[in-house]
Amino acid sequence: MEGCVLAANSKSYSAVTLDGAANLNAECVLTSGRTSGLGAADLECPKVLEKQYPSVDPLAGIEPPSYTSCQSVPGGKTKTPSPGTYCGKTISGEVTLEAGVYILRGGRVNLGGNGFLIGAGVTIFLMEDAEFTINVNEIVQLSPQETGPYAGITIYQPKSNTNTVSINGTSGSFVDGFVYASGAHVSFTGNAGATADGECLRIVGDTIEFNGNSWYGANCEGKLGDHALTAGRHISIVR
Fold first, then answer.
1. Same domain? 221 vs 198
2. DSSP assignment, residue 124?
3. Are residues 70 and 41 both part of a single domain?
4. Maximum distance among all Cα pairs of the chain, rounded to whole angstroms
5. Which of 19, 38, 54 lies at the terminal end of a domain, its last residue?
6. Alpha-carbon distance 12 to 68, whole Å?
7. Is 5 within 8 Å of 27 (Cβ atoms)?
8. Which residue(s) pair with 177 in the sheet?
9. Fewer CB in a 10 Å sphere around the end CB: N or C, the chain?
10. What whole-number distance in Å separates Cα of residue 194 and Cα of residue 171?
């Protein structure tokens, strides 16, 4: 996690846990609780920061857009959906998204086989229990809008949607911007080629799990709009 801080608001004694032969390289680890298995972690900060004040939700004030009329998903394996609202649809195959906002009312992103999902300047809203799953043999390349109310947000799942967000893209995959699922589990699995393109990935989830040889970096200057994500808080008494 090059240039990144891993932060957990949980007060559990195992709020951040490394299992088995897992390895962690990060700027720092910060938690409201305790950690487990981090003795061999490679951190830039002097030590793991435990019993810290919780971090603030960076997207707490976001209001999803209003629904528009339901659109049809183009047929065929290769498709280019337009921005808009999709109701109860499955998006699969080789998919290239035009720039804009996509609202899934139910349904799922499940590419199937060796599909891909590519889109620059997109925000995907997973509403009404919509699901998002990228499997290990598929490619995902997504980056967010850089202006407007949803600047910096790539995937947004409201807290009421508790379905797991799974990003397991193969070599050549990257996600840039916020992946936000504050009420759900987020699984980020990859190999040496599955990255955030060296740019800016921010993951917010109820629980977050890293597997495989996942790597991502954080160079977020100008990438997140006004939605800054900071780890931890402190209190100062000023006279």
1. yes
2. E
3. no
4. 67
5. 54
6. 42
7. yes
8. 201
9. C
10. 5
Spell out the residues 6+ positions from residue 78 whose beta carbon is closer than 8 angstroms to its own.
93, 94
Q: What is the pTM of this model?
A: 0.89
Q: What is the pLDDT of residues 5-22, one digit of tens each?
A: 899 999 999 999 998 888
Torsion of CA 198, 204, 208, 209, to 10 degrees: -20
**Same-domain pairing of 106 and 39:** no
Q: How far apart are CA 208 and CA 3, in angstroms?
A: 18
The angle at the Cα of 208, spanning 202 to 209, to the nearest 5 degrees, equals 115
What does the pLDDT look like over 100-128, one tens digit per residue?
999 999 999 999 878 999 999 999 999 99
> Pairing mode, if any, of strands 84-87 and 174-175?
unpaired
In 10 A of CB 188, how many CB atoms? 23
* Domain ranges, residue 13: 1-54
* Residue 15 sits in the same domain as residue 115: no
